[in-house]
Amino acid sequence: MLLPLITILVGLIGLLWSADRFVGAAAATAYRAGMSTLLIGMTIVALGTSAPEILVSIMAALDGVPNLATGNALGSNIANIGLVLGITALVAPIPVRFSIVRRELPLLLGATGLAGYALANGILGRFDALFLLALLGFSLWWLFRADTPDEEAPGQVPDMTLPKALAWLALTLLLLVASSRLLVWGASELARSFGISELVIGLSIVAIGTSLPELAACVSSALKRHHDIAIGNVIGSNLFNMLAVLPIPGMLAPGPIDPAAASRDFPTMLTLTLLLGALLLWQRHGAIGRLPGGVLAVLYGGYLGWLALSL
């Protein structure tokens, strides 16, 4: 019992430390390539903060616990909207660009709907995974095609030479792999010890743990008033979770999924995604303030309570 708890703690600390530095190195490299702040948030920072989810899902699928991987993808999206965006808005209101509503929001809504279609029959197979990965390729092409570079470097991007940034990318990627391996082993052992389903562990402990990089990046961005990185990170991370993380168990361990994923967790994620869409449309020339942020945080707390009652 004690060893899995220690392993989870060490894995989470490793993920947080390495993901933070991975994001910095990746953002520095991307900015030198002429990418805008919003695109850095939507792609590089989002990919960096989604790296724990991606690696945890790979390890879970290879270890024969694909439901933990599925729960990680769905639970991380729920946590990103309810916990990460909610707390970030409580820290500082988040201005909304109309371009986000026009360009990025439809991608997220489309990816969420297609992910629901893939889960609807209770089986996540290789065809579903390939379909979602193809949509990921289209989404990345669309974002890069419509990007307009900034004139000044955002404060979120560290001042690094290209060789130094690449060295940090390689080092932190190795640490991410090792940390995710520890986290998956500890979480699966804990689930077996208490008789808790791997899906619930993935939706709660693992999802919150792997969403901590998003929370740290968004709160830091909001405090520094780099709001494009903050909101772009949440939308981009959720897009990656649906199109890069969810297909992993379908590719590596195709088969049936826990029925609760389609009946309880996907509807919750869809509801929060639609609520986020409504907030962005309502405030497309304003900001997501503390009241909506508080509502999102309370809804996330209610969802965790629902999960606890289902144990």
Automatic annotation (TrEMBL):
Report TM segments.
38-62, 74-94, 100-120, 127-145, 165-187, 199-223, 229-253, 265-282, 288-309
Q: Known InterPro entries for this protein?
A: K/Na/Ca-exchanger, NaCa_Exmemb, NCX_ion-bd_dom_sf
Q: Where in the cell is it found?
A: Membrane
Q: Which Pfam families match?
A: Na_Ca_ex
Q: Name one GO biological process term.
A: intracellular calcium ion homeostasis
The protein here is known as Calcium/sodium antiporter
Query: Which PANTHER family is this protein grouped with?
Result: INNER MEMBRANE PROTEIN YRBG, SODIUM/POTASSIUM/CALCIUM EXCHANGER
NCBIfam families, per database record: calcium/sodium antiporter
* Annotated membrane topology: Multi-pass membrane protein
Q: Does the keyword Membrane apply?
A: yes
GO terms assigned for molecular function: calcium channel activity; calcium, potassium:sodium antiporter activity
* Keywords of the record: Membrane, Transmembrane, Transmembrane helix
Q: Which domain of life is it from?
A: Bacteria
Say if the entry is tagged with keyword Zinc: no
- What range(s) does the Sodium/calcium exchanger membrane region domain occupy? 5-144, 165-307
Any Gene Ontology CC annotation: plasma membrane
